[in-house]
Amino acid sequence: MDADGGTVYDMGDAVAVSRKTKKRERSVEALERLSNPGTLKAVAAVLVFGFVFLGSPPRAVMAAHSSNVGSAGFKDVAGAHLSGVVLDAAEPADEGLFYSVYKVVKGDTVSAIAEEYGVTVDSIVTFNRITNTRALAVDRLLKIPSLNGILYDPDAEDTVAALADEYEISAERIREVNELRGDDLAEGQPIFLPDARLSSFALREINGDLFSWPLRGWITSWYGWRQDPFTGARSFHTGIDIGAAHGKAVYAAMEGVVTAVGYSTVAGNYVIISHHSGYSTLYAHLSSTLVKNRQRVSTATVIGRVGSTGYSTGPHLHFTVNKNGRTLNPMTVLR
Length: 335
What we know:
Layout: H1 11-35, H2 37-54, H3 59-66, H4 72-82, E1 99-103, H5 110-117, H6 121-127, E2 141-145, E3 149-152, H7 160-167, H8 171-178, E4 191-194, H9 200-207, E5 218-221, E6 224-227, E7 234-237, E8 240-243, E9 249-251, E10 256-264, E11 268-274, E12 279-289, E13 296-297, E14 302-306, E15 316-323, E16 326-328
Antiparallel strand pairs: 1-2, 3-4, 5-8, 6-7, 8-15, 9-14, 10-11, 10-13, 11-12, 12-14, 12-15, 15-16
């Protein structure tokens, strides 16, 4: 202090103070420049470049992005480049194969239930041993598997590798889902084939969509027991009778090969066609036949015309479906 009580500054102290003041001023200027939106956008762009082209960004940068810390400029630039990028996302847990239980109500269809649960029709029908989806009973409890695939009964010759090749699925996935260690399978012990699908023919069979109508008309007699139209005696009708105008075209109900063309006192003019998987069909009382034995036919082939030949009371088509020599109700397989 001076004699009057005033403060005396040393020149060295004055220089130090001046330097500190200037340093603070430069820091403020730097912060002001950094807070400028244009500057922040440029910094963010550099950081994003480093993320996209050079690898993972520093943790501090990602923390700022995830919490939206900083100016709007950073959010806009980074957001534009990082849209849709998921960082450190955990994979969904694989809970394996299990099933839910669903009780069928009136009006339900297997396809609608499958859609509701997000699985294939194949999965539900095989898991529940359904052979005809049209005969789905109300109040039936269905097992709905958690995975898409089919339940399969192995034969003695089946192996995991062979089934994987046949169904074009992963052998490792078969072992994983069924908790198998090797390639061999126990005959008769069902296994689940994840992601496998039934053949289109098998699915058509189960859904009752195998056969097209051989012609359009009206049903004059159903499959099953009835009174004989001539004698009145109780007899079993092995097909359905479809009434139609005389001479109307009759088509093959499914692709196949003609195995018989002929005439009998009961069936009149008739055609028999052999189909896939042991199926065959009979078309009787025709006024004329238009195919030959061993001819290959499709659903677009006209095989004959409606008539009233043989044991008949008027123009109609008698249509029978056989599976391995046994008759089926055609209404369960016609689409």
